[in-house]
Queue: 2 jobs
Job 1
Amino acid sequence: MAPKSLSDLKRKDLFQTKGYINAEWVQAKSGKTFEVIDPATLEKIATVPEMGAEDTALAVEAAHEAFQTFKKTTARQRARMLRKWSDLCLEHIDDLALILTLENGKTLTEAKGEVTYAASFLEWFAGEAERTHGEVVPVANQNQRILTFKQPMGVAACLAPWNFPIAMITRKAGAALAAGCTTVWKPAGETPLSCLAQAVLAQEAGLLNGAINVVTTLNLVAEVGKELCTNKLIKKLSFTGSTRVGKLLAEQCAGSLKKLSLELGGNSPFIVFDDAKIETAVEACVLAKLRNSGQTCVTANRIMVQKGIYNKFADALTAKVKELKVGKGTEEGVFIGPLTHERAVEKAMAHINDAKKHGGQVILGGAPMDGMGGYFLQPTIIKNMSSKMLTTREETFAPVVALYEFETEEDAIKIANDCEVGLGAFIVTESIPRSWRVTEALEVGMVGVNLGLLSACESPFGGVKESGYGREGGRQGIQEYLTVKSMLINVAN
Ligand SMILES: NC(=O)c1ccc[n+]([C@@H]2O[C@H](COP(=O)([O-])OP(=O)(O)OC[C@H]3O[C@@H](n4cnc5c(N)ncnc54)[C@H](O)[C@@H]3O)[C@@H](O)[C@H]2O)c1
Ligand SMILES: O=CCCC(=O)O
């Protein structure tokens, strides 16, 4: 039987409810705490420390101290630790998935998928650690030799979101530690428990005391964020979350010119051309739109369908979505869990009501599922979407499928690019030339062709425009945590 509650954990010590500084589990200096809630039941699952600036500064100092030793480890030593950590994630996948489902709401199947995805970053960066090096540069002056080498930047702050609390920590910290940086993690207040479980496993994998530190906070997030941005011992900050907060962090980091990676909001177009196979389009759309209840940074937000197949696609998609079971992530057969917090339901309802006001036609769902006890929303499909609507400008971050109609390929590109952000995009077409043309024309960081998932540890992940800058994963991911030093040698005497 599938596990349902914390009492089903096989390794009880993976459920930690304190912050983690210099390899010790600690309370906040102020003694304050906050509660972590199961979004499927609204029941409290844990009480964790509400840490503030003082606690954060201690975590940064511990990481800085550890860096003096950690930077001298070899890439092979670091790779071994990361591989061991990856293996431990897979060994304890059931427990990690259960903790994740209980605090985030996603289904156990998706939670296991996230653990596997998280482990893949650790394995990937273990490999990259040993294959990242400088170069010998051809010289213009025969009396010189020039070479470059890569060095870890120092302490890295890793700020993870609530929608992928495990994978986003390993994507950031895996790269940082592979590079030889030490880290301070700040999980989202809604989902600290998955991060704390990762701290247990990372330590078990042999990481040096102080190489990872976890600061938990919900209500003092602005204070903690500011300390991380302004503390001069931190040399690099990586954030995944909203564009609003990303801009604030960039402003706060400007004072110390800290290097930033920002993976922010998107508004992904999902473009279905007349020549698409309907089954491929529906299957990809369900994944791109409804995975994690629509709460993914690359979630398809504007489903744009060419006129010739608009109604056919809408009917096929509606039939498919009607089959999907909504419920608690721990229940068998559930495809769509609750949203992670109350604000998400409010935001989705604001988008649905705004679409209705401007002529949108709700053909499925359209309301919260009040009797279910958590933050549940009916899977919703809206036709006749137009440029006037809120969803056109802002990501809905919920299981709300907004269907727009377009006429030509040129129109599709123009509409898709008429947007302040540019993270992901999806296109569905049987034409290879069109897939190239459209991919090249879209102003985004990632394009999926005939599929609904853009996630792979070996593929660089990130956006353009107000979706931020920097890349995570791929060969680029580790470079974000390294500096290049050049050495110029006089060989004349
Ligand atoms: N890119 C992503 O993966 C992602 C993740 C979460 C939210 N979002 C977007 O943001 C919208 C709103 O979500 P929300 O209500 O959680 O967003 P929010 O803007 O309140 O918070 C986003 C994240 O930033 C952190 N945060 C907030 N204030 C901070 C500060 N001053 N310093 C440091 N960190 C801070 C929060 O802990 C959270 O993880 C969503 O609907 C979605 O559009 C995107
Ligand atoms: O939501 C942010 C990341 C999602 C992913 O990597 O698939």
Job 2
Amino acid sequence: MPNFKLVEESAKKIINMEVRGASRIARFAAETLKEFAKTVEKDFDENMRKASEILMNTRPTAVSLFNAINYVMMYKGENDEEKKADAIRRAEEFIRWVDTAKQKIGEIGAKRIKDGWTILTHCNSSTALMVIKTAFRQGKNIEVIATESRPRYQGHLTVKELAGEGIPTTLIVDSAVRYFMKDVDCVIVGADTITVNGALINKIGTSQIALCARESRVPFMVCAETYKFSPATLFGELVVIEERDAREVAPEEILNLGVKVRNPAFDVTPREYIDLIVTEIGAIPPEMAYVIIRERLGYGLEMGELKVSAKHFD
Ligand SMILES: O=C(COP(=O)(O)O)[C@H](O)[C@H](O)COP(=O)(O)O
């Protein structure tokens, strides 16, 4: 029997943010599809399609979820048995992509961090933290300023992780970024999505930090695996910004006043504010986003026609 309960439970974990952060969500979706595929005995295409839809309708902004599902769903085979084996193989391949990319980004990004620097980070990006931790492990004497990242306080996860590594870390409220920017040598953040024009979609508040960094001439570095680049934006689609429950922001007492409360989870940082995007295949300017979408993900504009041919990870 196809285990849809497993898929529903995974979807719930993504929605309630028990599993969060773009790369963890992507990895978890691939793992879930892999485990689900093992339980399918017949009508493989139909069952996998249903499971994919359930996972897809969890959080709308991070393209990594789409890319993960899409990667697994490009399985091939003459019959259900072959399709199942290929889907499982592709899921495992995607999971390896997630793990190896983070390591490589850590190594590449760490080269850009100088001894003695103070780095500001926002939210909780496992990829941005990999860069910071790699630099620290190389013996660089660095400090981190981490924003608390309201309303979900992912900054608390960040400071726990950094303190666990022994990295000197200061926690600040989100609105104190400009106050502290004079002490910052580099901003390093993660990504939920990179669009074809090189814009970054990341945790709400990222664009204000980028603006502030630009004002102070502080370099702004984004850490993004290539599966965080969005092919759909090449075809003219806009990235949907998730708007979460008002109760995450305001208590009942305020909500009862009938006041409108808005809670967008992400915002857009235009490419002009980004100095560098560190991917697992190199540190690139945001202007190279189309090249990544074409060469790495296999979606391109060919002879005036839209051509879709998603590639295998190597
Ligand atoms: O904005 C967030 C998390 O938002 P949320 O907590 O709402 O999921 C992170 O910066 C990116 O997802 C990148 O994370 P990673 O580098 O770990 O993929």
